User: Fold Mitochondrial arginine transporter BAC1 from Dorcoceras hygrometricum.
Amino acid sequence: MGEGSGYKEYVAGMLAGVSIVVVGHPFDTVKLQKHNTEGNGMKYKSSLHCTSRILQTEGVKGLYRGATSSFLGMAFESSLAFGIYSQMKQFLQGGLNSEKPRPQAIVPSAAFAGAIISFILCPSELIKCRMQVQGTDSSLTSIRYSSPVDCALKTVQTEGLTGMFRGGGATLLRESIGNAVFFSTYEYVRYHMHQPMGHISSNLSHFIDVGVGIMSGGLGGIMCWCVVLPLDVAKTITQTSMDRDSTRNPFQILQAIYKRSGFKGCYTGLGPTILRAFPANAAAIVTWEMAVKLLGIKRE
Assistant:
């Protein structure tokens, strides 16, 4: 990144976050709805069957249940993630542009950005998960929420302010590790894909950049979720459980899941998550890089 870009990196990151929700939220809804209704004795033949059921009963709106808090949370999260990562990476590189990715700058920058955004993301995801779980086919909880604000108020009333940060430890670990994996994969794939294309006509550069953005962002998303999905499973269980006395330690939760369902249980929802990860993160990187160009931020 070039010097003096300042707030522009955060604006570009915010736009990337919006694109993630537009593309990825329906996948989240299907994954959570399918998992929780099956836990209550109902069976969907497939994720496609679950999607069609939601569309039949609630329409397209049903796929975006809980999306309001997602748009707000992801916009802030992505803005901080990309902004903090970009500026900290530049600082660790001594303000110098580096031709090759430098893991000693990439990893700590990404992990630090992930740690910061986890404090914003945790309450947002708690609201999103609880709104999604109370779908028309789920009887997981007797508490009904009329809106995200109602969900937040009832959570605070019943569990106190700290209830909004239920699952915070798992979120912190997931975001720190996940961001380090995502940005490392993105930087290396982007670098190695651009290398052999250095002499291609500038008329094709826009299409090349979009293609590289799709692949680097998509693969970054897949690698990230392959590493941190068990932490996300533990986080979701923690946030949607109405039992105040249940453990919030993600490793104890995963240990219990492993004893009950084996390694497969720790990767519940892997298929839909991977299906979501590629297009959602590809959209984020393409949007991010287009915004970087439009805002005039210099890149190495």
Residues 136-141 have pLDDT under 50 and may be disordered.
